[in-house]
Write a structure and sequence with these properties.
The structure is a single chain. A five-stranded mixed sheet has the order 3-2-1-4-5. It is of the alpha/beta class. The chain is 41% helix and 17% strand. Helix 2 crosses helix 5. It has a single domain, classed as Ribonuclease H-like superfamily/Ribonuclease H (Nucleotidyltransferase, domain 5), CATH 3.30.420.10. The chain starts with a helix and ends in a 15-residue tail after the last helix. It has seven helices and five strands; from the N terminus they run αββαβααββααα. The longest helix has 24 residues. The radius of gyration is 17 Å and the shape is globular.
C-alpha cells in the first residue's frame, strides 16, 4: 500500500497527498472528495478502500486517520452536478479538496483517470484506493463525511431511507421515488429523473 508513496519519495517529493471521491453513482446528494497527507504510515485500524470496510470499521479508521493526517475536503452538491455533469463535478470536488489542504503537497496521487490541474506534479493510478495508503485513507474520510451528510438528509426526508442506501439506486430507494416523487437533493440529470 506504500509503493506509490515510496516511489515518489525516491524521486525527491516530500509532501505526498492522496485524493479520492465518493458519491459519483448516487442518485441523490453531493459528491465528496478528500485530499490527504499522512503524518505516519502505520495504523492500528485496518486501512483499505472504504468500500471494502464495514461501516463500524470505517468509523474507527476515520477517527485514527484524522488524528494522523492533514486533510482537505471538496463538496459539490446535486445542483452543480446537474448544471455541469458528474465528471466535471468530480474534477471540481477533487481540486477543491487539494486546495483546502492546510499543508501544500508537492505530489498528488489521484484515484482513477480523471485529469486534474493541481498546483504540483501528480500521478493517476487506477484503483489507487486499493494500492495507495494515502488514497485509501482519503477514500475512508470522504465516505464517512458523505455518509454523515446522508444521515442528516435522512432526518429531513425520512420517507426515502437515505441512512440505509446513502442515495444510491437500491430497490427501496426506487420504491420511495415512485411513491413520493423526487425531492430537491435528487440529481435530475440522472436516470430515472431525466426520462
Amino acid at each position: 500500500m506504500l509503493y506509490h508513496e515510496r516511489k515518489a519519495r525516491r524521486l525527491g517529493f516530500r509532501s505526498i497527498a492522496g485524493v479520492d471521491e465518493v458519491g459519483r453513482g448516487s442518485l441523490a446528494g453531493p459528491i465528496v472528495a478528500c485530499a490527504l497527507i499522512l503524518k505516519k504510515n502505520k495504523f492500528k485500524n485496518n486501512i483499505r478502500d472504504s468500500k471494502a470496510l464495514s461501516a463500524p470499521a470505517r468509523f474507527r479508521a476515520f477517527d485514527e486517520i484524522i488524528k494522523n493526517s492533514f486533510f482537505g475536503l471538496g463538496v459539490v452538491n446535486e445542483t452543480i452536478i446537474d448544471r455541469l455533469n458528474i465528471q466535471e463535478a468530480n474534477r471540481i470536488a477533487m481540486e477543491m479538496a487539494i486546495g483546502n489542504l492546510k499543508r501544500r503537497p508537492d505530489y498528488v496521487l489521484i484515484d482513477g483517470n480523471i485529469r486534474l490541474k493541481p498546483p504540483c506534479k501528480c500521478k493517476n493510478v487506477i484503483k489507487a484506493d486499493s494500492k495507495s495508503l494515502s488514497v485509501a485513507c482519503a477514500s475512508i474520510v470522504a465516505k464517512v463525511i458523505r455518509d454523515r451528510m446522508m444521515f442528516i438528509y435522512d432526518k429531513a426526508y425520512p420517507k426515502y431511507g437515505f441512512k440505509n442506501h446513502k442515495g444510491y439506486g437500491t430497490r427501496a430507494h426506487f420504491k420511495a421515488i415512485n411513491k413520493f416523487g423526487p425531492i430537491s437533493i435528487h440529481r435530475r440529470s440522472f436516470s430515472p429523473f431525466k426520462e
